[in-house]
Amino acid sequence: MLAIGSPTISFRASSGCNHLLKELQQIWTEIGESVADQDRMLLELERECLEVYRRKVDEAANTKARLHQSVAAKEAELATLMAALGELNIDSPIRKEKRSSSLKEKLASVAPLLDNLKMKKEARMKQFADIKTQIEKISEEISGYDNLNSSLISSITLDEQDLSSRKLTEYQGHLHTLQKEKSDRLQKVLEYVNEVHSLCGVLGLDFGKTVSEVDPSLQRTNTEQSTNISNSTLEGLEQTILKLKIERKARIQKLKDVVASLFELWNLMDSSKEEMNRFSRITYILGNAEPEITHPGLLSTDVIEQAFAEVERLTELKASRMKELVMKRRSELEEICRMTHIEPDTNTAAEKSSALIDSGLVDPSELLANIEAQIVKVKEEALSRKELTDRIDRWLFACEEENWLEDYNQDDSRYSAGRGVHINLKRAERARVTVNKIPAMVDNLINKTLAWEDERKTLFLYDGVRLVSILEDYKVSRRQKEEEKKRSRDQKKIQDLLLTEKEAMYGSRPSPRKSNSFRKPNGYRANGNGTMTPNPRRNSAPPLVINAKYWKWVRQLLTS
Known about the structure:
Layout: H1 7-31, H2 35-85, H3 93-96, H4 103-143, H5 150-154, H6 165-203, H7 207-214, H8 231-269, H9 273-277, H10 280-283, H11 301-320, H12 322-340, H13 350-359, H14 364-409, H15 421-436, H16 438-456, E1 461-462, E2 465-466, H17 467-506, E3 524-526, E4 532-534, H18 547-559
Antiparallel strand pairs: 1-2, 3-4
Helix pairs in contact: 2-4, 4-6, 6-8, 8-11, 12-13, 12-14, 14-15, 14-16, 16-17
């Protein structure tokens, strides 16, 4: 019989079979079984034993096949995990012990490594899941909760076949990019929201309602859903800021117009400082740029309505005091005309305006508007005449200096020692320089005046008289005066010559003693030494209001 297993177990099996055969043969003998029957029964017994052995062999072969299959499956699973985790540098223990190890040993050797890789896979999948969750959350915030980009989510679908470190790094990089974009968007949203808050404060609008119209998450106080930082939110905030800036600009312009009307009415009505201080908050906008106007509620509808109400109140008050205002503005017009030497319009003279208002033939508002327009026109004309009026003032000053110099030259004691004499000497030197410039000054003024008249196609009137005519008359009078002075000097020379001849014929006679009385000619003052010190004249020209008075003064100036 074939021995299977250890020698001890095989010996025991053989001894037992032999003992049983012997006992079976003895029984058969006692029974009286024939040899043929005994051989037949032994063959049956041997066939049954073979069937038992064959069944055991089949079971062992099946067990071996299952172990081979398990080892192959473990090896395939190990290879899959290594490929998925990117652990390609691990040597398989199955391959290392392929020849020397049994199937159970191989299976036992690969189990710990397989368990370790499974744990690594679970940890790696958890990392991927956490990163994917963060990416999906940030993507929702960027894309908007209602308009989530499905293509973006599908691009980060977890693939269990690729859990390598390279893939994990790629996911982390994508997450960092989204986190940076989220941070930038949050910063921009914060800047926009702050600007909206500032504009709403200035305009007096409800900030919460304004931002909620863009996106409710901008005003939400709970933390269930984070702030929407999608493109639509940013665009909505930009549009809101643009609308608020347009509204701010319109309100600033409206308020500036109202403030300008207030200032005009305050000036007309002589309003008190207390009355004007009530609107001190809004009056400062006239001198400030648009971005500098940040005072809360300054451009609110209530403030603008209050300003409009004040304008209406003052307008009604102005209507009740219209005649007084007309007279006041006419006086201002006459004063401006007097200062600028321009003739005012006689159609709105005080007496005529009063008569028209009392008769009811003219609306006082229209009359006041006409006077206001005349004031504006006179101011503009005065600005265009400024260069010529400055030259006229210099010419008139030179004429006064000339008159003073003539008085000074007629003073016989001008060189006497005394207090203030040196001052008059210096002034006389300056006056001579100025007087020598008068002819050129007059000619230049005439040329400038003619050029002004040619440019504007109108005459340059000075207190109602054409300036060129005044200057031409002045030149004629000055020339006549110079000729008269020359004749006087020639006559004096003849008188001196005759006196010298008379003295040579009859001898000299003592001249009468000059009086020591302190004679005070026009424009001089007596000093302590008996000399006369010229009094300084006023440098400004006398007021020229009426043409007759002006011509009288000019004639006196030219003939003095």
